[in-house]
Amino acid sequence: MDTSRKAYYLTQRKPGSEVSAEIAAALAASSIVFRKIDGKYSKALLIRAKLVFDFANNHRGSYNDSIGAGACPFYCDFNGYMDELIWGAAWLHKASNDQNYWNFVKSNILSLESTSNGGSFSEFGWDSKNAGINVLVSEGVMNNPSNENPFVPNANNLICSLLPNSPTKSVTYSKGGLLFKVGSSNLQHATSLSFLLIVYARYMQANNKVVQCGNVIAKPSDLTNLAKSQVDYILGNNPLGMSYMVGYGQKYPQKIHHRGSTLPSIDVNPNHMGCRDGDKYFQSSEPNINELIGAIVGGPADDDSFQDSRYNVSQSEPTTYINAPFVGVLAYFK
Fold first, then answer.
1. pLDDT tens for residues 155-179?
2. What's the predicted TM-score (pTM) here?
3. Catalytic: 257?
4. Which residue in the list 59, 93, 189, 257 is annotated as catalytic?
5. Residues of 236-273 as b/e, b for ≥16 C-beta within 10 angstroms?
6. I need a surface site. Which of 113, 187, 222, 277 has the fewest CB within 10 A?
7. Where are the domains of the chain?
8. What InterPro entries does UniProt report for this protein, alphabetically (predicted)?
């Protein structure tokens, strides 16, 4: 590839707190994973997580301003960086048990909830970490008499916004049973919210809790069953009998919106390809040349229909933020 693939970096003068804090969260979470396997590496991860978090917190600013077109218009941070800072602190507290990180979470969560640009308890994805924060923190405070407001109440509100029979449901379901939220690439919501359903169900089970949604009582099994219904739909139990994971099942998307899947390999076509030389492959009515096995696409429309077309980006494009949470969901059911 000889077309521009510019990389960007952050500095004290050009910060990006949402990116830095997200990296700190990932490093802290990874330190937990490796703690019993490789103690030295685990400690190195945690030390670096703390350093990166300090950078994110001490040099606050949005990567929207620092790298401009590198993020916008497709991946601008829309709801501010405070949720990522709290997310990073929550993971660092879980990894280190350092009270300072817990104090950071508690002192900032209410300001996050009161903001108009992202205080929603029901959002969780590449931009917003709100629902994830509440679920993550709830593990340690679920049996606290006050529930360390607002974490458990907000996590409960999330559950009530998702359950099909809840009087406060804020999502919709297709006739085939797939969860829908407003916006494109809908399977990002079905996968990420299924992940939170499973995590919260495990916390509820461990603490012998249920969630009250008006006159509906939700047990841990209700949350797990809802997540399983989404997994089954994505993998083929739907009106079209189609798996939305490439390479899985007998019927799956053939013309996904993905450069590497669409273009011939250098072994097949060793000649130089100019910037527009791939157009004929993109415009072809034939299936993609290379199967991107395991990739989950944006998914069907809310009437359970699916247009297998590279031009229909919101339905046919696979993304990391669709696949990533689904790995956790599949690991649980496996």
1. 999 999 999 999 999 999 999 999 9
2. 0.94
3. yes
4. 257
5. bebbeebbbbbebeeebbebbbbeebbbeeeeeeeeeb
6. 277
7. 10-77+85-97
8. 6-hairpin_glycosidase_sf, 6hp_glycosidase-like_sf, Glyco_hydro_9, Glyco_hydro_9_His_AS
Q: Which of 201, 187, 199 is nearest to 231 (CA)?
A: 187
Using the predicted structure, report yes or no on whether residue 146 has a pLDDT greater than 80: no
In the prediction, which pLDDT does 6 show? 87
Separation between Cα atoms, residue 164 and residue 179, nearest integer Å? 9
Quote the Cα angle for 176-179-183, to 5°.
Answer: 120
Distances (CA, A) of 84 to 48, 71, 327: 17, 16, 22
Which pLDDT band holds residue 114 (cuts at 50, 70, 90)? low
Closest Cα partner for 68 from 142, 145, 151, 6? 6
Centre a 10 Å sphere on the Cβ of residue 225 and count the other Cβ atoms it contains.
Answer: 12
Half-sphere exposure in the Cβ direction for 35 (13 Å, CA)? 11
To the nearest 10°, report the CA torsion of 89, 95, 98, 100: 0
Strand locations in 71-131 (E): none
How many Å is the Cα radius of gyration of the chain? 21
In terms of Cβ atoms closer than 10 Å to its own Cβ (0-12, 13-18, 19+), residue 217 is: exposed
Measured between alpha carbons, how far is 228 from 244 in angstroms, rounded to an integer?
15
DSSP string, 161-196: HH-TT-TT--SEE-TT--EE-SSSSTHHHHHHHHHH
Name the percent of the chain lying above pLDDT 70. Answer: 97
Distance of CA 293 to the CA centre of its chain: 20
pLDDT for 3 equals 76
Phi, psi torsion values for 184, nearest 5 degrees? -90, 175
Furthest CA-CA distance within the chain: 68
Please provide the average confidence, as pLDDT, over all residues in the chain: 94
pLDDT average, residue stretch 284-297: 97
Q: What is the predicted pLDDT for the residue at 120?
A: 85
- The secondary structure of residue 296, as a DSSP letter, is B
Q: Are 294 and 326 in contact (CB under 8 A)?
A: no
Alpha carbon distance 179, 194 (integer Å): 10
pLDDT at 147: 60
